[in-house]
């Protein structure tokens, strides 16, 4: 395992539903997520997320790729030091907003009011609570994608499947297809960080959307179900010990 399996990519999504951001490294804390991963979300409709008493909501409450594929055309970058989100479209920056300021939040909401006008069920509202993650999973987890599973899927589809369709945090190379699905309940290490597999990730129709073009051009959950009798690809894991992971770090099963 140590010689053949390694991390080949790290990504986070500062705003739920918006584009991935590649990372050179990620500092993980026990029981935590990637820094700023899904730290923000945009309510589409009823405003009932309470930052003082945050709780998990189904993703249908927010602007999200499963239903709002136009979001994939926006390319975003989040600056940790200034808490500023940069949004570009067709290579041109459309917005730079400090999401921790009232002015910046309003700027993003105004942008989405215009850009997503046809998809909105009400006034969009950016929500955030310190330490809370708007992940699809109600617990604080890290998502892993096995590149060998992706290639097995490509063989069935007969076309290239962009890895970022799966919106994972950690991309792994050197495993056998779906090997990570056997890690549920098992401890393993990414570099010097220990994790434990929690459950496999059931894929939704968001994976049908090309992350580069926003086109809904594949039937990924259906293909998984037809060929493997489930729609799972990837693994959620909980961080057990703190540390920093980087591309190139090896994977070691305990």
Q: Which keywords apply here?
A:
254 residues; alpha+beta; M1 Pyruvate Kinase, Domain 3; 2 domains; eight-stranded mixed beta sheet; three-stranded antiparallel beta sheet; 3 helices; globular
Structure description:
The chain folds into two domains: 6-31 and 137-253, M1 Pyruvate Kinase, Domain 3 (Beta Barrel); 40-128, no CATH class. Helix content is 13%, strand content 30%. The protein has three helices and 15 strands. The strands form four sheets. An eight-stranded mixed sheet has the order 2-1-10-9-13-12-11-15. The protein has a three-stranded antiparallel sheet with strand order 5-6-7, with helices on one face. Strands 3-14 form a two-stranded antiparallel sheet. β6 (84-89) and β7 (92-98) form a beta hairpin. It is globular. It starts with 5 loop residues before the first strand and ends with a strand.
**Number of extended strands:** 15
Report the major sheet.
8 strands, mixed
Oligomeric category: single chain
Order of helical and strand elements: EEEEEEEHEEHEEEHEEE
Number of helices, where a helix is a run of at least 4 consecutive DSSP H or I residues? 3
Number of domain modules: 2
Secondary structural class: alpha+beta
The name of the CATH topology of the largest domain is M1 Pyruvate Kinase, Domain 3
Low-confidence stretches: none
What's the Cα radius of gyration?
Answer: 18 Å
Question: What distance separates the N and C termini?
Answer: 10 Å
Can you tell me the CATH architecture of the largest domain?
A: Beta Barrel
Biggest sheet, strands in spatial order? 2-1-10-9-13-12-11-15
Could you estimate the helical fraction of the residues in percent?
Answer: 10-25%
The CATH superfamily of the largest domain is PK beta-barrel domain-like
Strand residues, percent = 25-35%
Mean pLDDT comes to: 94
- Which descriptor suits the 3D outline? globular
The CATH class assignment of the largest domain is Mainly Beta
């Amino acid at each position: 395992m140590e010689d053949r399996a390694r991390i080949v990519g790290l990504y986070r999504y500062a705003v739920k539903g918006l584009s991935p951001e590649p990372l050179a490294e990620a500092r993980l804390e026990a029981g935590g997520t990637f820094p700023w991963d899904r730290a923000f979300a945009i309510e589409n409709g009823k405003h009932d997320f309470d930052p003082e008493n945050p709780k998990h909501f189904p993703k249908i409450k927010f602007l999200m790729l499963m239903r709002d594929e136009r979001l994939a055309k926006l390319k975003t970058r989040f600056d940790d030091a200034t808490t500023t989100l940069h949004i570009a479209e067709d290579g041109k920056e459309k917005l730079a907003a400090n999401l921790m300021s009232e002015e910046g939040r309003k700027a993003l909401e105004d942008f989405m009011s215009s850009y997503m006008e046809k998809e909105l069920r009400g006034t969009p509202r950016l929500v955030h609570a310190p330490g809370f993650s708007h992940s699809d999973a109600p617990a604080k987890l890290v998502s892993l994608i096995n590149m060998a599973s992706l290639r097995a899927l490509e063989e069935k589809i007969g076309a290239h499947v962009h890895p970022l369709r799966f919106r994972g945090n950690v991309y792994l190379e050197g495993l056998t297809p779906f090997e990570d699905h056997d890690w549920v309940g098992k401890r393993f290490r990414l570099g010097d960080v220990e994790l434990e597999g929690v459950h496999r990730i059931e894929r939704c129709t968001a994976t049908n959307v090309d992350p580069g073009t926003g086109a809904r051009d594949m039937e990924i959950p259906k293909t998984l179900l037809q060929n493997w009798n489930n729609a799972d690809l990837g693994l959620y894991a909980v961080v057990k010990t703190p540390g920093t992971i980087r591309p190139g770090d090896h994977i070691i099963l305990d």
